[in-house]
Amino acid sequence: MKFFLLLLISISLNVIANGAAPGDTQIAIETQHTALVIRVSKDGDPTIIHLGKRLQNGADYALLPDNEKHGEDYTKIYNSVYTPAGGRNLLEPALQVSHADGNPSSDLKYVRHETQNVADGVVLTTVFLKDPQYPFEVKLYYKAYQKEDVIEQWSSIRHTEKKTVRLQKYASANLYIPAQHYYLTHFHGDWAREMNPEEIPLTAGLKVLDTKLGTRADLFQPPSFLLSLNKPAEEETGEVIAGTLAWSGNYQIQFEVDPLRNLRLIAGINPYASEYMLAPDKEFVTPAFLFTYSNAGKGQASRNLHRWARKHRIPQGEGNRLTLLNNWEATYFDFNEEKLTALFKDGKKLGVDLFLLDDGWFANKYPRNDDHTGLGDWQENKQKLPHGLGYLVKEAESAGIKFGIWLEPEMVSPKSELYEKHPDWVIKLPNRSEYYFRNQLVLDLSNPKVQDFVYGVVDGILTKNPTLGYIKWDCNAVIYNAFSATNPNPSHLFIEYVQGLYKVMEKLRAKYPTLPLMLCSGGGGRVDYGALKYFTEFWPSDNTDGLERIFIQWNYSYFFPAIATCNHITDWGKQSIKFRTDVAMMGKMGYDIVVSKLDEKELAFSQQALQTYNRVKDVIWKGDLFRLVSPQTNDIASVLYVSEKQDKAMWFSYLVGNRYREGSQAPIKLRGLNPEKNYKILEVNVYPGSNSPINRNQMVYSGDYLMTVGFNPSVDARRQSVVLEITEGN
Ligand code: GLA
Known about the structure:
The protein has 13 helices and 36 strands. The protein is of the alpha+beta class. The protein is globular.
């Protein structure tokens, strides 16, 4: 009774504040173009009544019907903001708990909400919910990034019941989206073939995207998707939501077309094998679900996420990145000091900023000479590197480049001193035989001692080598036989592993805020905005075949910006070095080749390309991306990056099919330029000895012309990749 009185008072306070109809409260979470509107019914049930374009007049939200569709919602909570299980709910819940007294039901009533400006252009709305029968509360957080049109939402759960409450499902987000039809693009893959899109119409019932792999969680399916409303969205047209869960472990995203043919979306940690025992007065905070809504196609949705990521998420997202020469494919495990110091000079000759020493530099009792041994023993291998890392840092610096290393600190080889000393730090089941992924096992990061060990490894190396310029952080195994020998709650392992990883990263970032860190996971097995809070860049795939990469990079680009996408030129694939270089330029460029094997022209081309890249990289990294021609449905691919000031653009086009006379048959219409400005087009990355037909006649085009009529980059079998630099000028 007391609770209901309080509820009434708080509702009426909010009603006064929001000027809505008596008995109803509208909570509008708005960005520049988007609104998510919550309505609290007279009974205190919070529901979603709008998700889409923002209405010009906020008062109009009060006019929105409770449900736009004909038909009966028997429960009146199909569109709950956080659907509780066990009561009158008939559909997928966002929350399922067993209370201290064993009651398996919950009810969540609105208590109040508050809105704060937490940073320039960032508004946080918190909605407080409570179970009327239990001292059990849920807070829903919605952080609205105004300019970027991105909403980040998460929830927290707390109670003061007499004993532990068992959380069986605890979603981050529960959205409700009414439309006539829904088209989901999700992505699947495996090692070296990451991010293959599949678009499907959603039919009545449930479609689930998830992973149960624990670590390297995105190996088969990343937590990112595109959802088109009413009809499949195109690049420049259509309504689309781009969503992704910021979590580096097991996730579950559910799409449920409900009996009214509205779409219910529930995203969060995967409840699989993850019951969470919540003690009284402790708070469980879920990871964040991020989404952006666009009514101007997928292109706009991507640009929103890119801007948001650069400005608000990725460390130094608007800063610099280092070009590098990696030795993995050049040497694999077979190197010594002499070989490496020669490679430093090669790197300098090529013109990169840094040399990255990959796997194989560590372990002595069980030397890391192949991928069966040594993980966990992070001491320099005395045979390969008798003078240690410090010597290499100095040698690289005196050759004029920085030095970085590969680490895989979450892992352990069965043959390692670490495993011998600390078998209880390893994730495994005592009565099952060990089963390996890439011949290795995963350390139990839910154990604080393991967290200290991992932090200590990285901090130790950085303390000893303060000018070490880069770390490639790998994670090559999934979790088999999931069990922690030390965790009092074995079902917390999957969750506390990721929390443990984030704790380590948090501590490392506090001490080393500007260190460039590459997020790698046997290729692209871990690419999400949870980890990208700490990492400056990610490795999309071990597959660096130029042609394959066009597709892989295209598909990552729906969600992640070029500045964070590491692309290396290697010996994979049959394409020319020009083709592979042009492809790698569409992101953060690096090399993994034997420089001394390049012929004169190849070397001259590469040196020139690096100089061009240094001149134009800011346009690629910080510009707006326009995907002009899709390789999925065409024989060419074409991608444009336009600077925010619209004074510069970089345009990349490729031949991806090999049918007779395929190529860019007609002009391609550009996007994102200023129609009022004039532009010149110059072909760059022209291979020594060849001529560019484009550079023969230097013409001036208006932005209007280039966007209305277009321009033909002249891609064909003889010109399989073309890079054009577009500059404002008369
Ligand atoms: C993973 C990475 C590679 C390389 C190897 C080293 O496969 O994706 O780039 O670092 O590990 O073992």
